[in-house]
Each structure stands twice: as C-alpha cells, then as structure tokens.
Amino acid sequence: MERLVIVGGNRLEGELRVSGAKNAVLPLIAATLLTRKPCVLEGVPDLRDVAVMMEVASFLGAEVKKEGESLYIHPAGAASREILPPLMRRLRASNLVMGPLLGRWHYFKVAYPGGCAIGSRPMDLHLKGFVAMGASIVEKQGFIEAKASRLRGADILLDFPSVGATENIMMAAVLAEGVTLIRNAAREPEIVDLQNFLNKLGARIQGAGQDVIRIEGVKELTGASHRVIPDRIEAGTYLAAVAGTKGKVFLRGARYDHMAAVIAKLREMGARVEEDPAGIRLEAEGRLKAVDCRTLPYPGFPTDMQPQIMALMTTAKGTSILCESIFENRFRHAAELKRMGADVKIEGKIAVINGVSKLSGAVVEATDLRAGAALVVAGLMAEGVTYVEGVHHLDRGYERMESKFQSLGAQLTREREG
Ligand code: EPZ
C-alpha cells in the first residue's frame, strides 16, 4: 500500500493544466460499443478508472489502445456477453455498458457492481428506463440480465435526475425504434459531452444539459473522434487547495461555465476568482469565511466537491453548515479531519463545522476518491506532517496529483506505507 507524505503550510502558487474529465471519458468509452466503426477519444487522462473501463471494453471484444492522451477504440469485434463480478466490482461505472449492450444487441448480463464507500448506489432508475423501452429484466444471484425482442422509444420520467441512468437510457435509445424522451434528466456537462459525441456518430439527440432530452432512434452509427471536456472536479479540487493555503493559481483549460456553483462558494468564502478565455484564476489571502452549502444535482453545488469544501470550512472563520443531499453516506472524511483537529459534528445529512485556528498533521485514511482529495487539501493547509494512506483511491480520479501539487510548491511525496 502507498501513502502520501505532506508537509503542510506552504502557500501554493503557479499554473496547472486541467486533465480530461474522468466522468466524461467513462460513458464515452461505453458509448463506442454502439458502433462497429473505429473511434478516437482525445485528452484522455491516465487514471485507474479509465484503465478499468478500457479493460471492460476489450473484455467485450473491442480493440483498445491508449497512446499518450489519445484513446483508440475499434469496437467491431465487440459482443454482448456476461461481465464477470471481479471486473464489475472494480469499477461501478462499468454499469454504463448496460445501455449500449441493450441498444446494440438487445441483451446484457452484468454483475451488480455493488455499493461503495459513499452509498448503496442502486440502479433501479436505469432498469426502469430499459423496461419502459421493452426490455425484460431478471435479477438473480448477483447478476442482472436484460433481454428485448425489440427496443422502442419511450417517454421516461426519472424519479431523480441520476447521471448514470440518464447516460444509460440515452445510449440504449440511440438505436431504438422511434423517439425516446428522458424527463427530469441529469444536466451535468458530462451528459452534454456524451450527446455531442453520440451525435458525431450519427445519433439524433437534443436537449442534453436541460431537463428533457429527446433521442430519435437511427439504424446504425459511424465512427468519430472527440476531445473530452476538462475535469471540473479535478479543477475544483485544486482551486480549493490553493484557497486553503492562501495561494494563487491559473488553471489552464478549466471551464468557468462548468464550475459556477463551486466558484460562487469559493468567492463567498473570500477567494478572488476570475474567468479568463484560457482558464480560471484564483487568489486567496487571509482567513477564509465560514459559509453554508448544500450539494445538489447540476447546476447546484456538486457532491463530488463536498469533502473538499468541508476541508476548507475546518479553518474558516465561523460556523459552516454543510448538507449532503445526494449520497447517504458521504461524510466518512469527517472522522479523519477530526484527527487533524477539526471540529465537525455530523447529524444525518448535515455536518456542522466550527472553524478552528489551525489543523495539525496526522496519519489519516482515504476512504474513497473525493474523501482522499479532501485529506490532501487538509494536509496542505495543516501545520506539521500529514500521512494520507489509501492513495490508490486518489489514483482512480487524479492524474499525476503529486507532480501537479509539487509544481505549485507543495511538499508532497509518495512512499510505501511503513
Ligand atoms: C455519477 O455517479 C458520478 N460518477 C459520481 O462521481 C457523482 O458523485 C454522481 O454522478 C452524482 O453527481 C460518474 O459519472 C462515473 P447518480 P452516478 O446516479 O451516476 C441515486 C466521483 O467521485 N440513484 O446521479 O452513480 C443514488 O443512490 C463519482 O467521481 C438511485 O436511487 O450517480 C444517489 O443517491 C462518485 N437509483 C443519487 O441517485 C438509480 O438508479 C445520485 O446518483 C441511480 C441513482
């Protein structure tokens, strides 16, 4: 096992280039299974989750090759077959192959990816959409099997604007007969990126980014190349780290229009944030101010930034109220922050954070990807040395995190756990 060793207290300053968005790449790789023609994805980050999704696509018979930031996928040989538990357990987002397999082969059999550190992660909304389009679903012995003689467009209302369910239903609808409407659809930028890629393949989709998406089924798709959008959560994580260390940064490639809620909250806390055609500038001096924050579906404040903003609140001036309304168990980083001297009380979905004057370095454990990111932010802010164990969680979603932080002046190294 590996851990990060962080000597806190340095003011972070400099310029970083934002990597391609993990949560855009994963559905894009799944979407290539809808066609037989070669596709190229540009700006693909070097992440464990991407590597696992590439493994899933090649397991299904696609030829997959990554050269630098270009990902070449030739799905001609792909076929719907049983996806084994070990593969599914390694990445929940592998469930995004359900829509393409059902859409292209009218069949899939996948193992339940299972829950994870932040919640049970059900898939009922995905399956309800598939049934509405004519699929019959059998769930047994930890597998989900879906069959459809024909796949017909349907008018589907999501009980909750689920990102994965919106993506899976969109992909299943691309080759269905007739028109599918997804109402109360998720509006995340990654959904818009998926629509743009699918339309390059010849799909007929409109409305992504709003709450009703219309998909008109087509007969078959062609190939395409597509540059992935920048990662708004990676960008938000670095903005938080620089704000927490009273620093100054330019994030090249960050998209201001994808980050309005995060930027508004950082400004409310006292950071100065400016939009630039090539990226985003942030500068913070003096102690941040406490704020209230509630996570919401896009364009609200993203749940994937909740741990990181909690880290900032631990030393802000005053008391912050933080509500996690998306996942049922996404406060596990609070206990670790308390080991560093934070004053956090959890009551169900609500966290009350009383700002303390400083955090102290400690040995802490990352329980999931974003909790780990929050502990790195806290370690950079703290006095003394922090050891963040469970670095493999970070490698799932942050490309070259050490070198990016080191380039901003952080004293942060990776070592094998003693
Ligand atoms: C995506 O997960 C992201 N992952 C998550 O990012 C992100 O936190 C989440 O969206 C919310 O923004 C990827 O895009 C690969 P949801 P997803 O379906 O699609 C409930 C990260 O750190 N729900 O929008 O799984 C669910 O339990 C990861 O990068 C149902 O009840 O999220 C949760 O409470 C973590 N039934 C809520 O909806 C369903 O059928 C949001 O889930 C589906 C979801």
Map the helices and strands.
Elements: E1 2-7, E2 13-17, H1 22-31, E3 39-42, H2 48-59, E4 63-67, E5 70-74, E6 82-83, H3 85-90, H4 98-105, E7 107-111, H5 124-132, E8 136-140, E9 143-147, E10 155-157, H6 163-173, E11 179-183, H7 189-200, E12 204-206, E13 212-216, E14 225-227, H8 232-244, E15 248-252, H9 260-268, E16 272-276, E17 279-283, E18 293-294, H10 306-313, E19 319-323, H11 332-339, E20 343-347, E21 350-354, E22 363-365, H12 369-381, E23 385-389, H13 391-397, H14 401-407, E24 411-416
Parallel strand pairs: 2-15, 3-14, 6-7, 10-11, 18-19, 22-23
Antiparallel strand pairs: 1-23, 1-24, 3-5, 4-5, 7-9, 8-9, 11-13, 12-13, 15-17, 16-17, 19-21, 20-21
The structure holds ligand EPZ.
Ligand EPZ binds at residues 22-23, 26, 93, 119, 121-126, 160, 162-165, 186, 303-304, 326-327, 369-370, 397.
Please outline what is shown here:
It is built from 14 helices and 24 strands. The chain is of the alpha/beta class. Helix 6 packs parallel to helix 7, helix 11 packs parallel to helix 12 and helix 12 packs across helix 13.
Question: Can you describe what's shown?
Answer:
Helix 1 runs parallel beside helix 7. This protein is 32% helix and 26% strand. With 418 residues, it is of the alpha/beta class. The protein has helices spanning 22-31, 48-59, 85-90, 98-105, 124-132, 163-173, 189-200, 232-244, 260-268, 306-313, 332-339, 369-381, 391-397, 401-407, and strands at residues 2-7, 13-17, 39-42, 63-67, 70-74, 82-83, 107-111, 136-140, 143-147, 155-157, 179-183, 204-206, 212-216, 225-227, 248-252, 272-276, 279-283, 293-294, 319-323, 343-347, 350-354, 363-365, 385-389, 411-416. The strands form six sheets. It has a four-stranded mixed β-sheet with strand order 22-23-1-24, covered by helices on one side. It is elongated and about 65 Å long. It has two domains: 2-19 and 230-416, UDP-n-acetylglucosamine1-carboxyvinyl-transferase, Chain, CATH 3.65.10.10; 22-227, Enolpyruvate transferase domain (UDP-n-acetylglucosamine1-carboxyvinyl-transferase, Chain, Alpha-beta prism), CATH 3.65.10.10. Bound molecules: ligand EPZ.
